[in-house]
């Protein structure tokens, strides 16, 4: 067994194994790092988009043009929906452009089954890919027969249109999904504000503010002392 490990083939398998293990560790660490970063970005996005309702509605509330919960909800939802439609025009156009390029490209090539992700004519050409069809497992952590199938390179023929198809559709979809998340955030903010602003529950009110004027100006309080007749 020891001789096998130190043989040429054994060393080769050993090196391949640890490269795979190292790659898996890097992928796992990167996954959690990206996941944490995305969580932070989503949290900030939801907070920022929720605050847009404050910007939309504060002039109406402060000027007393909106005086009840139902009216506040209707106007806020209408403004939020219009903002969603307005901000979704560009990403939807990007998706449409990507789809039109896809139709034109496949009309020219005639191969409608071609995937934009393959490593021959698609965006797969931009990444390392491996062939695992002949992979062999050597316990406990040994692997062999894994072949490098593609190294990153650009294609310059008509198939390069797949890059643009992916770029337009990917950006459009991400942008649109961000808008959907922002819309949900504003809806949650509307529900929170309507319950807070128009609540009749005294627990939501700072009662000290009701008497602040009297405390600051004691001369304005009513004199309850009755005159005494001598």
Write the topology of this structure.
Elements: H1 2-5, H2 8-62, H3 69-109, E1 129-131, E2 136-138, E3 142-144, E4 147-150, H4 161-197, H5 212-216
Antiparallel strand pairs: 1-4, 2-3
Helix pairs in contact: 2-3, 2-4, 3-4
Keywords: Membrane, Transmembrane, Transmembrane helix
Transmembrane segments: 20-42, 83-105, 163-184
Describe this entry's structure for a reader.
The chain is elongated, with a radius of gyration of 32 Å. It is built from five helices and four strands, in the order H-H-H-E-E-E-E-H-H. The chain is mostly helical. The model is unreliable at 1-8 and 220-230 (pLDDT under 50). The chain has one domain. The protein has helices at 2-5, 8-62, 69-109, 161-197, 212-216; strands spanning 129-131, 136-138, 142-144, 147-150.
What is the structure about, briefly put?
The N terminus and C terminus are likely disordered.
Strand content: 5-15%
**Number of self-contained structural domains:** 1
The largest pleated sheet is described as:
2 strands, antiparallel
Q: Helicity range of the residues? A: 55-70%
> Got a strand count?
4
Transmembrane segments: 20-42, 83-105, 163-184
Keywords: Membrane, Transmembrane, Transmembrane helix
Structural features:
230 residues, membrane, 4 strands, two-stranded antiparallel sheet, 62% helix, 5 helices, mainly alpha
């Amino acid at each position: 067994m020891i001789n096998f490990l130190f043989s040429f083939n054994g060393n080769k398998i050993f090196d391949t194994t640890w490269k795979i293990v190292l790659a898996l560790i890097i992928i796992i660490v990167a996954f959690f790092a990206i996941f944490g970063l995305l969580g932070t970005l989503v949290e900030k996005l939801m907070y920022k988009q929720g605050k847009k309702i404050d910007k939309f509605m504060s002039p109406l509330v402060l000027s007393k043009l909106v005086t009840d919960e139902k009216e506040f909800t209707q106007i806020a939802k209408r403004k939020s929906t219009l903002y969603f439609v307005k901000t979704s025009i560009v990403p939807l156009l990007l998706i449409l452009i990507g789809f039109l390029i896809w139709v034109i490209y496949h009309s020219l090539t005639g191969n409608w089954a071609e995937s934009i992700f393959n490593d021959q004519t698609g965006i797969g050409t931009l990444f390392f890919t491996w062939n695992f069809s002949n992979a062999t497992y050597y316990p406990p952590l040994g692997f062999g027969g894994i072949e490098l199938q593609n190294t990153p390179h650009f294609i310059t023929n008509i198939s390069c249109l797949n890059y643009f198809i992916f770029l337009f559709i990917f950006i459009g979809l991400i942008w649109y999904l961000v808008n959907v998340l922002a819309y949900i955030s504003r809806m949650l903010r509307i529900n929170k504000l309507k319950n807070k602003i128009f609540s009749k529950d005294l627990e939501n009110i700072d009662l000290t503010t009701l008497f602040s004027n009297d405390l600051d100006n004691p001369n304005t309080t009513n004199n309850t002392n009755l005159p005494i007749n001598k």
